[in-house]
Amino acid sequence: MLSVKGQVESGGLNHVPSKYLYHTNLGERISSDAEVIPTIDFSILTSGTPDQRSKVIQDIGNACAEWGFFMVINHGVPNLLREETIRLAETFFNLSEEEKREYTGTQLFDPIRYGTSFNVTVDKIRFWRDFLKIHVHPSFSAPNKPPGLSEILQEYSKSVREVAEELFKGISISLGLEENYIKDKMDTESGSQLLVTNLYPPCPQPELAMGLPPHSDHGLLTILMQNEHSGLQVKHSGKWVPIDPLPNSFLVNTGDHMEILTNGKYKSVLHRAVVNGKATRISVGTAHGPPLETIVSPAPELASGGNNPPAFRGIKYREYLELQQSKQLDGKTCLDHLRI
Ligand SMILES: O=C(O)CCC(=O)C(=O)O
Ligand SMILES: [Fe+2]
After folding, report:
1. Which intervals of the chain form a coiled coil (predicted)?
2. Number of structural domains the chain divides into
3. What predicted TM-score, i.e. pTM, was given to this entire model?
């Protein structure tokens, strides 16, 4: 398994190798409107007046229902911590191929997994992306090199978890539920948190390859940041909307398990990562879910009565992850397998 970075750096790559050719017109239905995802001021959620707080909670609810994605500003995670996380993540990818290979996971639940594409055992075509995935909660793992990586990822994961917990409160209230509903029902304090670092090296023919094809995320919430290069696109009203996050912001999206829990009220939206010809793009996302053994099904409060029956069957989070990983990413959400 040769990483994309390794291939790019071996030199002389002036075209996309055939196994990476992605046969979709990337320009197709890119939104030309200046659409922007909603922005949520996190500081209002934590310390606004009661009126400001209910307004921002309403905004969160609308963002989850209409976009499944929003940008979070004033989140309190120090910029230095974010920058160091990205910098040290990059130094991991700068290790030699041999050093990185030590972390090649073979199993989905290996606590540390370095790899390329999505899942090379099922991918029919390869994606222009290398990754490092680590389980950071309830128990924390990280590669022991380069020096400092493990410490910074631990600190970063903890800070982001705090943001997630506040967002879970706001989301619970926005659904007409008690503030701690998601925290308690999904046991998020002992929940699973998976950190994924994506590295998309510059691509000689960016319109012919794909970093990550259309997919939805599995957890309750994903919190994502990136270096200065954009590439994320979100499906909205049938079009792909390129996302240019504000400096120092997080992108947050509701995942498949939020869609299950809310009985489809909040959507887990398709998104993809395109590549560019000039620069290495890095993104770091954390997926926040319940403990792996939790069975998630639609909340009875949101799925009852004749006109609102449960739309999904329940599934253990662990089994859902296995299901997702066993399939090719093909633009359909894995959730379709659970629809009643
Ligand atoms: O790199 C990005 O912007 C998106 C990454 C992503 O969607 C993922 O890791 O699930
Ligand atoms: Fe994603």
Report:
1. none
2. 1
3. 0.96
Give the tens place of pLDDT for each residue, 226-237. 999 999 999 998
- Please state at what angle helix 79-93 crosses helix 149-174, rounded to 10 degrees: 130
* pLDDT single digits (tens) 153-189: 999 999 999 999 999 999 999 999 999 999 999 999 9
Ligand nearest, relative to CA of residue 256: 2
Crossing angle of helices 149-174 and 50-66, in 10° steps, is 100
Which domain covers residue 63, as residue numbers? 4-336
pLDDT at 106: 77
CATH label of the domain that carries residue 77? 2.60.120.330
Q: What is the pLDDT of residue 323?
A: 86
Q: Is 255:285 a contact under the CB 8 Å cutoff?
A: no
Give residue ranges with CB within 6 A of ligand 1: 196, 198, 212, 217, 224, 226, 231-232, 271, 273, 283, 285
Pocket test for ligand 1, best of 232, 274, 282 (most atoms within 8 A of CB): 232
Under 8 Å CB-to-CB from 182, ≥6 apart: which residues? 168, 169, 171, 172, 188, 220, 261
CA 307 to ligand 2 centroid distance, Å? 32
Q: How far, in Å, from the CA of 300 to the mean position of ligand 1?
A: 31
